[in-house]
Design goal:
The structure holds 2 protein chains of 2 kinds. Chain A is mostly beta strands. Chain A has no helices and 11 strands. In chain B, the strands form 2 sheets. In chain B, strands 2, 4, 5, 9, 10 and 11 form a 6-stranded mixed sheet that branches. In chain B, strands 1-3-8-7-6 form a 5-stranded antiparallel sheet, with no helix packed on it. Chain B has no helices and 11 strands. Chain B is globular and about 40 Å long. By secondary structure, chain B is an all-beta fold. In chain B, 0% of the residues lie in helices and 58% in strands. The chains are: A mainly beta, B mainly beta. Chains A and B meet through strand 5, strand 9 and strand 10 of A and strand 4, strand 5 and strand 10 of B.
Chain lengths: 114, 111
């Protein structure tokens, strides 16, 4: 069966510090991978998605970047965090296009930037 | 760009009652998906309804789709306290045809 892991679960970082959130998927090959951010009381905003190793697409311009060094590993990074980067970050995967197939979400990382 | 929007934003009911949540969207779709999110957790896929389907059932869940009105509804029958969560609809949107989620309906079921 497939599982998706995210870590850390919670993170408190000062403004200007770097960020690295990791997501790994088990039990499937060549998944589409996604990073979302959810602000308090808001819906999900798609940040990045990847259809393969080294292939990253960004939905919105921002202070963050993503990388996919391995087939089932997706990393969200920042060189210098902003207060506005606070939120709940969710990683997800799908088989093929999420538009026609369901997405499977990780447990999320709660990031607080102070 | 916002595609699906849920209504109401919040809903509070008693255990045993039915809960109905609505979703409206803007552009034509291939399918519409409903997800559930418990507080502080990831989303869980509930049901996918295709554009050529009008109604779909899964346990106590019933989803309807009206493509002429660009709307969908999620009905939870005989609600339980454990159904307390936020419910999101998602449809295709954005520049690359990815899923776009609404802001969700926060459902509270009181025992």
């Amino acid at each position: 069966s497939q599982t998706i892991h995210q870590w850390p679960a919670t993170l408190v970082q000062p403004v200007g510090s770097p960020l690295s959130l990791e997501c790994t998927v088990e039990g499937t090959s060549n998944p589409n991978l996604y990073w979302y951010r959810q602000a308090a009381g808001r819906g999900l905003q798609l940040l990045f998605y990847s259809v393969g190793i080294g292939q990253i697409s960004s939905e919105v311009p921002q202070n963050l970047s993503a990388s996919r060094p391995q087939d089932r590993q997706f990393i969200l990074s920042s060189k210098k965090l902003l207060l506005s980067d606070s939120g709940f970050y969710l990683c997800a995967w799908s088989v093929g296009l999420a538009a026609i197939n369901e997405q499977f979400f990780g447990p999320g990382t709660r990031l607080t930037v102070l | 760009s916002q595609q699906g929007e849920e209504d109401p934003q919040a809903l509070s009911i008693q255990e045993g009652e039915n809960a109905t949540m609505n979703c409206s969207y803007k552009t034509s779709i291939n399918n519409l998906q409903w997800y559930r999110q418990n507080s502080g957790r990831g989303l869980v896929h509930l049901i996918l309804i295709r554009s050529n389907e009008r109604e779909k059932h899964s346990g106590r869940l019933r989803v309807t789709l009206d493509t002429s009105k660009k709307s969908s509804s999620l009905l939870i029958t005989a609600s339980r306290a454990a159904d307390t969560a936020s419910y999101f609809c998602a449809t295709v949107g954005g520049s690359q045809g990815n899923l776009i989620f609404g802001k969700g309906t926060k459902l509270s079921v009181k025992p």
